[in-house]
Amino acid sequence: MADSARSALPLPDYDHLPIGGLESRVRSLSADEVEQLLAYERSHADRLPVTRLLDSRLDQLHGGAEPTSGDPNALRPETGQSAQGGSPVSPATSPQPHSPPPHGTPDQPAQPKGDRT
C-alpha cells in the first residue's frame, strides 16, 4: 500500500530527495500536487522542515504565484549532484600526494617512532 502511495506522488523518489533538492523541485508543481506531497509527508515521516517548506510553497501558490518551468530533475537523489554536472576532478587533474601516509606505503615503509630524536 505504501508503495502505491509513493509511486503516485508528483516527484519520483520523493522520500530520498535532500531538502535543498526538494525546495527547487516543488517550484514546478501545482497547488494540488504540493497538497498531495504535504498529505503524504504528514502521514509518513512528518519532517518539520519539509512540512514548513511545503506549507510555505502552498501559501505562495494560493497567493498568486505560478509554478515555474524549472527542471523538476534539478538534483538527482542518488548523488545529490546537478543533473548536468558532476565533479570536474579526474585522476589526470588530481594533485599527487606530497608525503606518504603515517603508516607508510609499500615502497616507503613507516619508520618506528622510537628512532626519532
Overview of this protein structure:
There is one protein chain. The protein has a domain at 1-65. It has four helices and two strands. It has helices at 2-7, 19-25, 31-43, 48-62, and strands at residues 104-105, 108-109. The chain has a two-stranded antiparallel ribbon with strand order 1-2. Strand 1 (104-105) and strand 2 (108-109) form a beta hairpin. It is elongated, with a radius of gyration of 24 Å.
Task: Give me a quick take on this structure.
By secondary structure, the chain is mainly α. It has a domain at 1-65. The chain has four helices and two strands.
Which features would summarize this protein structure in a list?
single chain, 117 residues, mainly alpha, two-stranded antiparallel ribbon, 4 helices, 2 strands, 35% helix, 3% strand
Radius of gyration: 24 Å
Q: Quick check: average pLDDT?
A: 76
Strand order of the largest sheet: 1-2
Label the overall shape: elongated
